[in-house]
Amino acid sequence: MDFEDFCELMGPRMLVETADMLGIRELRSSFQQFDTDGDGKISQEEMKEAVKTLLGEKLKKGELEEILKEIDLNGDGTVDFDEFVMMLSVQ
């Protein structure tokens, strides 16, 4: 079983547990800080801006792509709310 299979299997359970621990309102608020255009997905550009603005970090070339590749479980090139919660639960 690879990481992607594990996340697919455990994702729903971890989502519920993480949402219960942190509170869905707080999670949505955090997600919205990254999702600046309000489309329900965090694009690579939004993630880049958020990392720079919210976290005060500048990533090296390729680091952002690598991070997104790991958390973009459905492979659509963006991070949706479920993937965002999964990312937080793994940390």
From the structure above, extract its key features.
91 residues, mainly alpha, 2 strands, two-stranded antiparallel sheet, 5 helices
Characterize the structure shown:
- It is a single chain.
- With 91 residues, the chain is mainly alpha-helical.
- It is 66% helix and 4% strand.
- It has a two-stranded antiparallel ribbon.
- It is globular, with a radius of gyration of 13 Å.
- Helix 1 (3-22) crosses helix 5 (81-90).
- The longest helix is centred in the N-terminal third of the chain and has 20 residues, at 3-22.
- It has helices at 3-22, 24-34, 44-53, 63-71, 81-90, and strands at 41-42, 79-80.
Topology:
Blueprint lengths: L2 H20 L1 H11 L6 E2 L1 H10 L9 H9 L7 E2 H10 L1
Antiparallel strand pairs: 1-2
Strand content: under 5%
- Give the averaged pLDDT, no decimals: 80
Low-confidence stretches: none
Q: How are helices and strands ordered from N to C?
A: HHEHHEH
N- and C-termini, Cα separation: 20 Å
Helix proportion of residues, in percent? 55-70%
Q: Can you count the beta strands?
A: 2
**Rg from alpha-carbon coordinates:** 13 Å
Order of strands across the widest beta sheet?
1-2
Structural class estimated from helices and strands = mainly alpha
Our count of helices gives 5
What is the general shape? globular
The largest sheet is: 2 strands, antiparallel
Overview in brief:
With 91 residues, the chain is mainly alpha-helical. It has five helices and two strands.
